[in-house]
Structure formats: structure tokens, C-alpha cells
Design goal:
about 475 residues, mainly alpha, three-stranded antiparallel beta sheet, 22 helices, 6 strands, globular
């Protein structure tokens, strides 16, 4: 055997079985109530429970470890231990994805505005007396200069929504946006005063239970902040890998090597299909053992950064960016945080309106291809709604792509996936849901067609109105 040929990728059947086993492990953890610290079982017990081979089980365990669901503990009292997922386990993979797709600062801020307008609206509807005291204390600390950054109020408002999806994405995009500029650089006192005034105005609208005014003031505030940051000399439109990758992927040797290889792929601007190296070549280049290199390769494959090809001319090659792994990580994190269909619905309606509006703008400017909409309608008609979504060819996913905003597409993908997960769960629990899905299909098709006709006609207002009516008719209460 040629020593330069990299170890073959796990065959498709094993990968499929491992994925299913990992899904079952996650489902079992959720069903148990996510008891952190509890041992699900030893390797022998897990082999018996899930009915898979040792090789398949170990691949499944690696998946749930990367998803921050559980980790394998060796030695006495060892086994697969349930762990507490944290936001860092989401932010790292999110940064990786945004680096891969080249998301810009403008995309991040446009997405923040869409999300935080909704936060302001919901928070204003939920604000109570306890919130008044807490928000006023934050504003007093800001005006006194005793808060080191201006994220506190935004995080506090997101928490007031009691919506874990909004809380996560506000935190994620606020923190990711700081990778685009030097947050430690001195901020002019004049701008700091303007931020304090804007925060005070937003808070007053929210505490007065005025959702429309709160939304408007939030949009104005974040738009002004974006304009200010764009003008700073340290600001960049695209992420600096050296800054953004610090701390991502974990601290183990295999994880560190995966980060180093990924940074090299970014630095060389390698296109999908570009050769990264053979196993032996990577061992020599990075002075790493075979075990560490293989662990790094598994991580790169999991994040769809690079994949292996076997046989002569094989090795590690750059993959097309794929959002599925990140969507899975975020969905699992949110399930742990108790996300419900109501939380998804709260975000979904506002999100779809933002998507259709941005897609309409791009179509009108000639920056998007209207033919993609017709292809999506055909895919749904030919395949059905669920299969079309599974292939990323459905109407709503296509509209999200037409926005050209990779950050917004990420939020949209997660909410769509969560929605389908809840729907699938209901269908399994209640056979009548299957019949309902057929009647829903007859309603959804004409609604999508109507929205598409408004978009291709360049009528943004009508497209938004029809999308709002469609969401009101189809999203569950």
C-alpha cells in the first residue's frame, strides 16, 4: 500500500449508521431530561443498546462529543457521560462556518438588526415591574461608565424575551461582530454618550410596552452603530482567521491540529476540491502522530471543511461549505435550553418577512436569479415539502439564499430545521398529523406561487403581505 495514500474515509454505510446512532444518543439524552454527569453506559452496554458495531459506535460517540452532548470517560466508572453544552460550543463552529462562506460585517449587522428589532418588540410585550428595576440599573451603570462594553443591555433585553433562540443568536452575532474590529480600541466619548442615549430611548419604549417604537429605536441605534464601526481604521469587512479561530474547535491536540490545517486552507484561499495533503504528508508537515492527524481529519470532515479520497491520487481535499453540521449543533444546544415550537414561531414569522424583503431587493437589483424560485416550486410539487426541504431545494430555503446574506441564512436554516423537527415529532405521536400534512401541501403550494408571482413582478409590498398571510395561516400557535 502506498504510504502517501491517506486512510480511507469511513464508508457511506458506516457513516449513515453512525449518524443514526448519534441521533438516537441525542434523543435519549433529551428524553432523560439531559441529566448532566450521568453515565449513559459503558462501551459494551452502548453496543448492546444501539445494536451497532464497535467501529460505528465510536464514530457516533465522536459526533456527540463534537456536538457537546456527551463525552467518553475512560477508566474506572467510565462510560459515555452527559455534559452541559455551552454557548462557546456553538460560537466556535459558527465562526468556522462564517469564515468558510466569507460572511461580511454588513451581513452580520443586517442580521443583528432583523433579530434585535424582534427582541425589542417581544421584550416590550413581556416587560414587568422586575424588568423595570433591572433595566434601569443597567442604564445607570452604563451612564456611570462602570460597564466595560455596551452589550449588556442587548443581552438583557434578549433574556427578557424568554426565547432561547433569540437569546442565542443575539449573543452569537454580537460577539462575532467584534471579530471584525478591535473592540479594545478607545471609543470617542461622544459616541459613547450617543449609545447611552439610544439605549435609554429603547429601554423607555420597551418599559412603556410600545413595541412599534421600540423596534424603530432599535433599528436606528444598530444602524448608527454599524455606520460608526465601518469608519473605524481597525474595521474589516471579512473575518481575520488568526483572530477569529483562537479558541475554536477545542484544546485537544487533534482539535488544535484541525484548527491549524483550517487556518492554512483559509490563508491559501483554497477552493473546493483543492488538495490539502496526504496522511503521511500532514504528519511530516505538522510533526504530529498518525492518531492526532486522523482525529484532526475527522473533525475537519465533521465540519465539512475537508474530506478524504481513497486510492491512488487520494488524500485530504477541501470540501464545499455545508451548513448542516452547524445547524445540528445549534439545534441540539437549543433543545437543551428548552426550545419550544412557540419560540420558533416567534422568530420564524419576523424572519420570513425579512427574508422575502431582502430577496425582493436583490431580484429588483439584478443580484439574484428569479429562475431559482421556479425551480424551488417545481421541487416542492415533484418531491413534496419535506423531501424538498431535506435536499435544500424548498421555496423558503431558496428565498433565504437569494438574500445573499450568509448570516441570515444560518438563522433561517436553524429555525426551519427546528420547525421540521417539531412537526416530525408530532407526526410520530399523532397519525392524524400525516393527513394534515397532505391538506397543508394543497394550501402551501398556492401560497408559495402567489409570493413568487409578486417577487418576479417586482412588487415587494405585495410579496411581504402575502408572506405574512402565509405565515399566519401555516405556523402553529
Amino acid at each position: 500500500m502506498n504510504p502517501e495514500v491517506i486512510a480511507p474515509r469511513v464508508d457511506a454505510r458506516r457513516a449513515k449508521l453512525a449518524g443514526r446512532a448519534a441521533e438516537q444518543i441525542v434523543a435519549d439524552v433529551i428524553d432523560l431530561g439531559w441529566p448532566v454527569g450521568q453515565v449513559l453506559g459503558s462501551e459494551t452496554e452502548l453496543l448492546d443498546r444501539y445494536g451497532v458495531s464497535r467501529a460505528v459506535l465510536r464514530e457516533a460517540i465522536r459526533l456527540v462529543e463534537h456536538q457537546h452532548v456527551a463525552r467518553m470517560r475512560r477508566g474506572t466508572n467510565g462510560g459515555l457521560v452527559i455534559v452541559e453544552p455551552d454557548v462557546e460550543g456553538v460560537i466556535g463552529p459558527a465562526v468556522i462556518y462564517l469564515l468558510r462562506v466569507g460572511a461580511t460585517l454588513d451581513e452580520i449587522f443586517d442580521t443583528r438588526i432583523a433579530l434585535e428589532e424582534l427582541v425589542a418588540e417581544i421584550a416590550s410585550q413581556r416587560a414587568n415591574e422586575a424588568d423595570i428595576a433591572a433595566v434601569r440599573e443597567t442604564l445607570e451603570r452604563e451612564s456611570a461608565g462602570s460597564i466595560s462594553h455596551f452589550r449588556s443591555l442587548h443581552s438583557q433585553l434578549a433574556t427578557m424575551t424568554a426565547n432561547p433562540v433569540l437569546e442565542l443568536f443575539v449573543e452569537l452575532f454580537t460577539r462575532v461582530s467584534n471579530f471584525y474590529f478591535d473592540e479594545s480600541a478607545a471609543v470617542p466619548g461622544k459616541f459613547a454618550d450617543e449609545v447611552c442615549r439610544a439605549h435609554d430611548a429603547i429601554a423607555r419604549a420597551i418599559l412603556a410596552n410600545n413595541p412599534g417604537l421600540a423596534r424603530d429605536r432599535m433599528r436606528r441605534h444598530l444602524s448608527a452603530e454599524a455606520a460608526f464601526i465601518r469608519k473605524r481604521p481597525t474595521t474589516v469587512q471579512r473575518l481575520d482567521p488568526a483572530v477569529a479561530l483562537a479558541g475554536t474547535l477545542g484544546d485537544k491536540r487533534g482539535e488544535g491540529l484541525a484548527r491549524e490545517i483550517f487556518a492554512g486552507i483559509l490563508a491559501s484561499r483554497s477552493e473546493p476540491g483543492a488538495f490539502v495533503g496526504s496522511e503521511a504528508g500532514l504528519m511530516e508537515k505538522y510533526q504530529a502522530s498518525r492518531a492526532v492527524v486522523r482525529e484532526a481529519i475527522r473533525i475537519l470532515e465533521y465540519h465539512q471543511i475537508a474530506g478524504t479520497r481513497r486510492g491512488p491520487g487520494g488524500g485530504l481535499f477541501v470540501d464545499e461549505p455545508d451548513i448542516s453540521a452547524l445547524t445540528d449543533i445549534i439545534s441540539i444546544y437549543l433543545r437543551r435550553r428548552g426550545v419550544t415550537v412557540r419560540h420558533v414561531t416567534q422568530l420564524r414569522v419576523g424572519l420570513e418577512l425579512a427574508v422575502v424583503e431582502q430577496a425582493a431587493d436583490n431580484l429588483r437589483a439584478g443580484d439574484a436569479d428569479a429562475a431559482a424560485i421556479e425551480e424551488a416550486l417545481r421541487a416542492e410539487a415533484d418531491q413534496g415539502l419535506a423531501p424538498a426541504f431535506g435536499h435544500g431545494e424548498d421555496f423558503h430555503t431558496t428565498l433565504a439564499r437569494l438574500t445573499g446574506n450568509r448570516a441570515l441564512q444560518l438563522v433561517h436554516s436553524v429555525t426551519m430545521r427546528l420547525g421540521w423537527q417539531f412537526f416530525s415529532q408530532w407526526a410520530g405521536d399523532d397519525p392524524r398529523i400525516g393527513a394534515l400534512s397532505e391538506s397543508l401541501r394543497s394550501t402551501v403550494g398556492p401560497a408559495h406561487q402567489g409570493i413568487a408571482e409578486a417577487l418576479t413582478a417586482g412588487d415587494t409590498e405585495l410579496a411581504v403581505m402575502r408572506m405574512r398571510a402565509h405565515m399566519n395561516e401555516t405556523v402553529p400557535d
